[in-house]
Amino acid sequence: MYLYKLEAVIGDRTVTLIVMGDSDRDVLENAEVHIEKHFVGKQDVREIVLLEKRRAVKGAAYVIE
Q1: What's the Cα-to-Cα distance from 56 to each of 4, 12, 45, 51, 64, rounded to whole Å?
Q2: How far apart are CA 22 and CA 56, in angstroms?
Q3: What span, in angstroms and rounded, lies between the C-alpha atoms of 11 and 43?
Q4: Which Pfam families does the UniProt record give (predicted)?
Q5: Most buried pick, 16, 17, 39, 63, via CB within 10 A?
Q6: Which among 16, 25, 21, 26 is positioned nearest to 62, based on CA atoms?
Q7: pLDDT digits (tens, 9 = 90+) for 1-58
Q8: What is the pLDDT of residue 60?
Q9: 3-state SS string over 7-49?
């Protein structure tokens, strides 16, 4: 398992997502599902960019400003 730090451009704003998964493909698909859940409904997702990938082990984390 890995922790993925993603950045998504939705309309005119940019959001950061942290998603855990086994593969890049699954994580990108799950990211879109989480965006739709968070913002309620279909969103204008222009792009999703993979910024970082880390093995999901005890103590693994990201700091988001």
Answers
A1: 9, 31, 26, 16, 17
A2: 10
A3: 8
A4: DUF3906
A5: 17
A6: 16
A7: 999 999 999 989 999 999 999 999 999 999 999 999 998 877 889 999 999 999 999 9
A8: 87
A9: EEEECCEEEEEEEEECCHHHHHHHHHHHHHHHHCCCCCEEEEE
Q: C-alpha distances in angstroms, 29 versus 12, 32, 37, 63?
A: 21, 6, 13, 23
Place of tokens 């999703």: 48
Asked if 60 and 7 touch (Cβ cutoff 8 Å), the reply is: no
45: tokens are 């997702």
- pTM for the whole thing? 0.84
Give the Cα separation of 18 and 42 in Å (integer).
20
